[in-house]
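Researcher: Go.
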Amino acid sequence: MFKDLFSLAGRVALVTGGSRGIGRMIAAGFLSQGAAKVYITARKAGPCEATAQELTAEYAGECIALPIDISTMAGIDMLAAEIKKREPKLDILVNNAGAAWGAEFDDFPESGWDKVMTLNVKTPFFLTKALAPALRAAASAERPAKVINIASIDGIFVNPMETYSYAASKSGLIHLTRRMAVRLIKDHVVVSAIAPGPFKSDMNKAARDNADEVSSRVPAGRIGTDEDMAGAAIYLASRAGDYVVGATIAVDGGIVYANPGIKGDGWD
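Model: Structure:
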């Protein structure tokens, strides 16, 4: 009954922003559980192709680089066309590519608003829309297709750092997850989200460069590991998460529940 509950054997996945950080953690996790192919995207071709080669060498499945900038509709359409050309169906889509911007309220620029809102909210919606035919082709009542949006705990509680567009975008993505989930479950496509806390990444330099200091402010006493992030994504992507529709799971060592308002320093 519970055999292969977390298996991803034979499945095809796409992880945007998969060359590094959280995206790479998730791509590696999927391959570790038997995914046949994991496509990863990134703006820079070199790091994207290097990560694909490294993960392919490490696991039985294949990691394939698609270095495309998906911050524009043209890029989104190009990525969807590449997947359609290569695959008759797509089992898992992880909308992980994102951006952040910090500036004081009185100086916050329009460019810092538009760039972040576009990549963090617009891109996940329109990429999912573009790939909906491939997801529907993979989906059935017995084995739904999956869309996993990578949000942030900054979309749940107020981070004192002045990252206005980032916080708004991640909060918006959490609610967009609910709205998309209600629509797409009719097609046997399950939409859910993960809200990470501090993990080592280029976006979270504090966790990457000052792990001990950041850990002291996390209830669990440490920053997140690759296994923590991969485990949550594997759960949602596998049979284990088939009935988790529209939910956002905080993977943060307890920060959200220990800090319901403005407290301390920034986490994510």
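Model: The domain at 12-257 is CATH 3.40.50.720 (Rossmann fold).
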